[in-house]
Design a protein that fits this description.
309 residues, 28% helix, alpha/beta, five-stranded parallel β-sheet, seven-stranded mixed β-sheet
């Protein structure tokens, strides 16, 4: 019998965006505990670009030809043996650990799915997992309480824009480091915006008498800045400078620490209730995957870039 084919992002070697292609591949068939999802939206993330460029080969090598993508939202089209939580036609949000969401269809473990509320747009649902789980874990790691002051570096990016909102919901005073172009958005979400760059430590001190916690979504020298500001290493979390864990004794809790359908359910409920916003920077058809990653590589993106198969 002829296999049913689908479009999926593939790359056959490490390299820049030009190694990305959209190929015709067989549509997978769900096995025990698996669900076949027709993908309606799939977010893209910096980690995928680093893997494709070969920068993460020691930690997470690629097997060629490799697919790409974790985030997804879509419609259940088939279920494997033993799956009872979802059924055909269900709208779902989820994730795959198999680098496979940037495709017309994706196989997903049933336990990695949660229902998509009607009030959550597809492009938001399909870009929620990586940034949402990462922001959730980072905010949890620094143990915020009412009255605390927390600084978030990269406050307008994909993770940062959610972290500042979750930190505000925890009752903290939130200082967001971002370019001036994003200060109005931050202020509109209850965040004190501060420009990064030379003199940032002085600007933070002017904004708040003390800093209790620090979330670094950017890397560079922000962990050192947090230490210089007097923040305890136990309340510094970085998702971008893993060498700082050994050097300073800080935390590096991110996506892996927050990866669960339960976290997705909680975040989707907040979005549906207008208590959390996921900014969308741009959407691209699946065939334009190279353009999507070129935009991501340019940096200074406010919000998420999403592929629409």
């Amino acid at each position: 019998m002829m296999a049913v084919m689908m479009k999926a992002v593939r790359f056959a070697e490490y390299g820049g965006v030009d190694v990305l292609d959209v190929a015709e591949v067989p549509t997978p068939v769900p096995g025990p505990g698996q669900v076949l999802v027709q993908v309606r939206a799939a977010g893209i993330n910096p980690g995928e670009a680093k893997i494709r460029e070969g920068l993460m080969h020691e930690l997470w090598p690629a097997a060629f030809p490799s697919g790409q993508g974790s985030d997804l939202a879509g419609v259940v089209t088939a279920t494997g043996p033993g799956v009872t939580a979802v059924t055909g036609g269900d709208n779902v949000i989820g994730y795959t650990d198999d680098r496979a969401s940037q495709a017309e269809y994706a196989l997903v473990e049933a336990g990695h799915l949660t229902p998509k509320p009607d009030a959550v747009p597809w492009e938001v649902a399909g870009s929620l997992f990586v940034v949402g789980a990462t922001a959730f874990a980072a905010v949890r790691a620094v143990a915020l309480a009412a009255g605390d002051t927390v600084v978030v570096a990269g406050a307008a990016g994909g993770v940062g824009s959610l972290a500042v909102q979750l930190a505000t919901r925890a009752g903290a005073t939130v200082i967001g480091l971002a370019s001036p172009a994003n200060h109005d958005w931050l202020a509109g979400h209850g965040v004190i915006p501060v420009a990064y760059g030379d003199g940032v430590a002085d600007r933070i001190r002017q904004a708040a008498p003390r800093v209790d916690a620090f979330i670094d979504t950017f890397g560079a020298g922000y962990v050192q800045l947090a230490v210089d500001l007097g923040v305890s290493p136990a309340r510094i979390d970085t998702i971008a400078n893993f060498g700082a864990v050994a050097e300073y004794g800080v935390k590096a809790e991110g996506n892996a620490a927050g990866a669960s359908a339960a976290v997705l359910t909680e975040l989707a409920g907040l979005i549906a209730g207008s208590a959390l916003e996921v900014p969308i920077a741009a959407t691209f058809p699946l065939d334009n995957v190279r353009d999507a990653y070129r935009l991501l590589a340019g940096g200074h993106i406010h919000g998420k870039i999403v592929l629409i198969p």
